C-alpha cells in the first residue's frame, strides 16, 4: 500500500469531519485523572535536541543550524532549550553564547559535569540555567568518574552554591538513577533540595526502566523534595514516552525531549510522540500551550539536519499516521473520525487520508471517492465497480490513478448504456 498509495490530501477521499464536533471530549477515558499529585496537565518541556540530540550518531550541527533549530523550538513553545556543554569544544562554547544572545522566549540551559570548572564556563556563556549531572550508580561511580557518594554530595553542594550566587537557575541530576542505591539517591536529592536547587533530575540513562518503576521512584521522591522534578528517559526498551507519562502522573514537573527522539544510541522521549500522548491525556493544556501546527516543520528541519527520514510509524507525522485503509475502518471514519482516530489531525495542521486502492477497500470508501470526483452512481453500481477494483488489486498494487481510471471508465460505460436506453 505504502509505495503506490502515498497520502495526498488532494488525491483520495478526505473526510472533513472533525472530532470536536462529533465526539464529546469530556467522555474520553484517556484523559487526565484529576488526582492531586499528577502533573499531566501542567508539565514543562526541557528540549534537548541541541544537547542530547547532538549525541545522536549522525548529528553535526553548525552554528547556523543550531540557531534555526533553537528558533523553531522557541516558536513551538518549549519551556527550556538545553545546549551541549561549553567545555566540549571552543565552538560549543561560542555557540552557547550565541544562542543565549538570541533573546528567545525559552530559557537557555547548558548541561555540564558536576564540577566547578564546568559550572564556571557555563555561567560565563550567559545561560539562564545550568544542568549539573553526575552518575550515582555503582557502575558509573566505579567506571566513569571514580567518586564516592560523599564526594559527589560535597562537590554538588559547592557547585550549586556557586551557580546560585551568580543568579542562575540550577538543577542537579543523578545519571543512571534507576541503577543507583535508593538511600544514596534520596540522601543526595534531599541535600541538594535543601541547598536550593530549582530542580532535581532523574535519568533512566540506559533505558531499562518500566512505567511502574518510574511511578514508584518519582512518587517516593515527590515526598522527599520540594523543588521541581525533571525526568529523562532513554528509549532502549521502547518505554520512553510511557515512562514520561508515568513520571508526570507521579508528580514529575519537567520532561526532557528531543525532536524525533534523537540522542545517544536510539535516543530519548521524542517531542512529537510526547505531544501525541499528552494531547490525548490533557488536550486543553497541550493545545493552548504548544504551537502544535509547527511540529511537522520542526521535525523536517531536524530530520534534514541529521540526514534521516521521518519514520513511517512516527506518531502524528509518520506518512501514514492518519491513513485509513481497511473497508470497515473507512466506512466508520467517513461517518465519524473519532471511530478510529484518537487524535484529530487538524490539531497538528494535518489531514487524514482514506485509501481506496486495495483488495481490502470497501464500497463505502469508493462511494465517497465517486462523490468527490462528481461521478453519480447508484449503490449497486458502486458495489459493482468496487468488485472490479478488487479484481485488479488482487493482481498488482494499485495507485490512486489506477483506481480513478477504473471509476472513470466504469462511469463512461454507464453513461453510454443510459444514452442507448433513451
Ligand atoms: C548520560 C549523558 O549523556 S551525560 C552527558 C554526556 N555529555 C558529554 O559527554 C558532553 C560531551 N563530552 C565532551 O566533550 C568530553 O567528554 C568532555 C569535554 C566533557 C571531557 O573530555 P575529556 O577530558 O577528554 O574526558 P573523557 O571524555 O575522555 O572522559 C570523561 C571525563 O569526565 C569525568 N566525568 C564523567 N562524568 C563526570 C561528572 N558527572 N562529573 C565530573 N567528572 C565527570 C570522567 O571521570 C573523565 O575524567 P578523566 O579525564 O579524569 O578521565
Ligand atoms: O542530566 C540528566 O538528567 C540526563 C543526562 C543524560 O543524558 C542521561 O543520563 O542519559
Ligand atoms: Zn540521555
Automatic annotation (TrEMBL):
Enzyme Commission identifier(s): 2.3.3.14
GO molecular function: homocitrate synthase activity; metal ion binding
UniProt family annotation: Belongs to the alpha-IPM synthase/homocitrate synthase family. Homocitrate synthase LYS20/LYS21 subfamily.
Residues making up the signal peptide according to the UniProt record: none
InterPro entries attached to this UniProt entry: 2-IPM_HCS-like, AIPM/Hcit_synth_CS, Aldolase_TIM, DRE_TIM_HCS_fun_bact, Homocitrate_synth, LeuA/HCS_post-cat, PYR_CT
All copies of domain Pyruvate carboxyltransferase, residue ranges: 43-296
Coiled coil (UniProt feature): none
Names of required cofactors: Mn(2+); Mg(2+)
Presence of keyword Chaperone: no
Pathway: Amino-acid biosynthesis; L-lysine biosynthesis via AAA pathway; L-alpha-aminoadipate from 2-oxoglutarate: step 1/5
Assigned GO CC terms: mitochondrion
Catalyzed reaction equations: acetyl-CoA + 2-oxoglutarate + H2O = (2R)-homocitrate + CoA + H(+)
Protein name in the entry: homocitrate synthase
Compositional bias ranges of the Polar residues kind: 15-27
Taxonomic path: Eukaryota, Fungi, Dikarya, Ascomycota, Pezizomycotina
Keyword match Transferase: yes
Organism superkingdom: Eukaryota
Keywords carried by this UniProt record: Amino-acid biosynthesis, Lysine biosynthesis, Magnesium, Manganese, Metal-binding, Transferase
Region (Disordered): 1-27
Residues that span the membrane, as ranges: none
Alphabetical GO biological process terms: lysine biosynthetic process via aminoadipic acid
